[in-house]
Design a protein that fits this description.
Blueprint: H1 6-10, H2 13-30, H3 36-58, H4 66-73, H5 77-85, H6 99-109, E1 124-125, H7 133-141, H8 147-156, E2 160-163, E3 167-170, H9 180-205, H10 228-252
Antiparallel strand pairs: 1-3, 2-3
Helix pairs in contact: 6-7
């Protein structure tokens, strides 16, 4: 519950810092893969969903109004109505989540960028008005993104190349911002991060001071650089042993056959060390 504490109300910068520490690593995972616009929309939808859940839990039976959701989330009621009405498609093409793919999709599919005779994508001038890479990028990716920035990115990925006359040629219209291995890692990581934060949320809402779900971390900021590799190897062995022991306990508790009351549990381990700034 909120507290009536005048001194605490004077400075809540700690909460902003907490949000920054939690969200920055997520941004690190997603930057260059998922546009900030899409990520913000997802975060807004999550705010609405969690505010609804929290109100239902704290005020059972009470009608949840748009006004209450606006108060709890900081979003205006029109935005809330739009987000609640939005249906997230089962299939999301790359063009809808990153500007590079959107540029390629428009170039490959819109009539203005295709040769009338061959029906193939035209070579586009990097600069200029009319039909050019510059106007395409400005329309699709925004006026703050230059055609040369997009050209460099797509050329590096093998989608386009610069040809004679300061023109760009489309080689491959498919842009996937992740590798197959990165997809597997991100899907697994999403589960791990989500469960970790849900453990913290559960313990914060629990009746006991530190909650009843195991949640602990040990570490030090005084490890000599020359000892890091050895320590990391030893911790990896220890984590492997502990994960096998936890797996044995979990499997031993599994119910035989199908039961309506079955619940899911998970135990996770990780190793972290600070890395030098680029």
């Amino acid at each position: 519950m909120p507290q009536n504490n005048a001194k605490a109300a004077e400075d809540m910068s700690w909460l902003v810092q907490v949000a920054d520490r939690m969200l920055r690593p997520i941004a690190r995972l997603l930057v260059g893969k998922l546009s900030c616009t899409v990520a913000i929309t997802i975060l807004k939808e999550a705010y609405i969903a969690e505010a609804t859940r929290k109100m239902r839990r704290e005020q059972p039976g009470r009608r949840i109004t748009k006004s209450a959701l606006a108060l709890w989330t900081g979003l205006d009621t029109r935005n809330i109505s739009q987000l609640e009405a939005r249906k997230r498609p089962d299939v999301v093409p790359a063009k809808d989540i990153c500007p590079e793919a959107a540029v390629l999709h428009a170039w490959a599919n819109e009539a203005r960028y295709r040769d009338r005779k061959t029906k193939k994508p035209k070579d586009l001038g990097v600069y200029g008005r009319g039909v050019s890479l510059q106007t395409l990028v400005s329309r699709v990716a925004g006026r703050n993104v230059t055609s040369t920035t997009v050209l460099d990115r797509l050329a590096q990925n093998g989608n386009v190349k610069l040809v004679e006359g300061d023109n760009a040629r489309l080689l491959n219209a498919n842009y996937v911002p992740t590798t197959d291995e990165e997809q597997k890692i991100l899907e697994s990581t999403a589960e791990n991060i989500g469960r970790h934060i849900e453990t913290v949320s559960h313990n914060m809402e629990a009746s006991t001071v530190w909650g009843d779900w195991a949640h602990t971390e040990v570490g030090s900021n005084r490890i000599a650089s020359e000892d890091i590799d050895k320590l990391r190897a030893e911790i990896k062995k220890l984590v492997t042993q502990q994960s096998k022991a936890a797996d044995k306990e979990i499997k031993g508790a599994q119910a035989s056959g199908k039961r309506v009351s079955n619940q899911s549990v998970a135990v996770g381990y990780y190793y972290w060390q600070d890395e030098p700034e680029d």
